[in-house]
Amino acid sequence: MAAQRPARPEVIVEIAKTPAWVKRARVRMAIVLNPLSPPEVSVPLLSLLLRPELEQVAGASFLPKVVRSAAMDLLARRPPTRNRGEGGPVQ
Questions:
Q1: Mean pLDDT value across residues 35-53
Q2: Phi, psi at residue 6, to the nearest 5°?
Q3: Around Cβ 28, how many Cβ atoms within 10 Å?
Q4: pTM of the model
Q5: Where are the domains of the chain?
Q6: I need a surface site. Which of 7, 15, 47, 84 has the fewest CB within 10 A?
């Protein structure tokens, strides 16, 4: 339901309020990537996303600018992670 287009914002809000759903990565991404999700729901969920997911959100031109900007800010503040046994950064 969170990925459905067009989505009803009130349905997305109810899904986001339910811990059993929000703890699932696919549901979080469906909410955040839904252009009709209210930013007051999407932006707080960004802190739960992994670096590649944040990059996807930051590059999603169909999302509200406030959501993309928040994803870019989080990416800028998160240091790159490193693979064990390798010296280079991991995205």
A1: 94
A2: -75, 145
A3: 21
A4: 0.80
A5: 9-78
A6: 84
